[in-house]
Amino acid sequence: MRHLTSMRRLGSLSRLVGAALSGALLVGACANPFDTDVDNPNAVVEDALADAAGATTLVNGLGASVTRALTGIYGPYHTATDELTWVGSREFWKNLDDGDVSDPINEYTDGAFPFVTEARWLADFTVRRVGEFATAGTLRNPKDRVRAHIYGAVIYITIGDMFEDFVLGSDRTESAEAVGPANMGVTYDSAVALLDRALPIAVSTADAELQRQVLGLRARAKHAKAIRVKAKATSGSPLVADAGATTDAKAALALMTPTWRFRLTPTANNLAGINVGFEMNNRGELRAGDTFVNADPARPIVPLAGIAGIKMLDPVTGAASTTVSAAIDACCRAAVGNNAPMTQVSAREMMLIVAEAELAAGNTDNFLTEINKSRAVDALPAYTAVTNGSTMLEYERKVQLYFQGRRLADMYRFGVADGRWLTGNGVRAKCFLPITYLERLTNVKAPQPTTQRLCS
């Protein structure tokens, strides 16, 4: 919570300065014109959060914190994949594009880390506080409790998907040790536990939308935990067949339309200081990767307009992928601006989870049926046969889950490398983003020394 604390101190300081200046004008009338013993009328103490009337506001604040964290961490993560590429002037973006994901002093990863850890802490706090309201019988809207669990699950899943290691047990004033790379599956377990508690409440409120979000995220969490194991493996099949994920995906699909998705869209008030939308669509440091788009020859920092800007070809039609085109239009063009929406789960992802389970089980006919359901979302013609199922699955996940925080683990497990990756960089060792310098500097229990790459 360092940033919130700093902001409060700055607010108090500005009022102190204002008071001092006002006092200087009245020096003849004041015995002590520089008295700084003043009250801050806008200060909010934690005791105020013990009132159940503020539960909705507290949960909304958590949603804003999680969204802000994603706008900060999406840039470093996606730049390390083939989804985004560096086209600007800042060297630390280049390093990520080259595959150097493990550097704890990379300014963009380090700048995003405090927002992620703040969202994690605030999720734990909010879930606990709203749960206390519910136990006391003072919670006015049980849906607030479901939403708190959903936002908490999102940040825990994100940490599991994007980080090599993380500090989960720390509080605002108490340090804790990192869980360790081998134990990062606990992030997904935490998300599942949150969603397990949320589902009966969502059902009891008869809120189908909340049920869709809970079931979809729970399927994603279970599937992603298994993917992380596959991503780190040095041999064996890359395919996941998690019975719990498949069951949840099918249950979620029963409540979803084919085009359903759950997105978090930032506003000007909940963007990280360095956010992915600005870096792509305003500053021009990043753009969609060369695997996916054709750069404009006249201005290579942006893709060509329209379908001409899409390099990725559909394997059935042979034409530029309309799926990629829609994804690029939604996130990665100047017209989108800073507030790029970030999909957390969708019906098409549920379809792909079910399809992968069929492929992993050797049911190629069923796999063909399920993978074609996901293609039908974009009105694309069906595959007529399974030639290489893993290649088909990797392609469909690549285009249908673009800019959703899934790609790096998929590249690792399917053995796909970005042409920009340099030999010796962390991606070659299947590394994810590190615990960064700021956390190591302020938490002596975090991995030390502060600047050392611990995965490479």
Q: Which helices and strands occur, and which strands form pairs?
A:
Blueprint: H1 2-25, H2 55-80, E1 84-86, H3 91-97, H4 107-136, H5 142-162, H6 185-204, H7 208-232, H8 243-253, E2 261-264, H9 276-281, E3 286-288, E4 295-296, E5 299-303, H10 322-331, E6 342-346, H11 347-360, H12 364-376, H13 389-400, H14 407-414, H15 437-442
Describe the structure.
A hairpin with a 2-residue loop joins strand 4 (295-296) and strand 5. Among the domains are: 51-265 and 430-442, Serine Threonine Protein Phosphatase 5, Tetratricopeptide repeat (Alpha Horseshoe); 287-340, no CATH class. The chain is globular, with a radius of gyration of 24 Å. The protein is mainly alpha-helical. Residues 1-31 have low confidence and may be disordered. Helix content is 51%, strand content 5%. The relative contact order is 0.14. It has helices at 2-25, 55-80, 91-97, 107-136, 142-162, 185-204, 208-232, 243-253, 276-281, 322-331, 347-360, 364-376, 389-400, 407-414, 437-442, and strands spanning 84-86, 261-264, 286-288, 295-296, 299-303, 342-346. The protein has 15 helices and six strands. The strands form three sheets. The protein has a two-stranded antiparallel ribbon. A two-stranded antiparallel ribbon has the order 2-6. Strands 4-5 form a two-stranded antiparallel ribbon.
Brief account:
The protein is built from 15 helices and six strands. It has helices at 2-25, 55-80, 91-97, 107-136, 142-162, 185-204, 208-232, 243-253, 276-281, 322-331, 347-360, 364-376, 389-400, 407-414, 437-442, and strands spanning 84-86, 261-264, 286-288, 295-296, 299-303, 342-346. The strands form three sheets. Strands 1-3 form a two-stranded antiparallel sheet. Strands 2-6 form a two-stranded antiparallel ribbon.
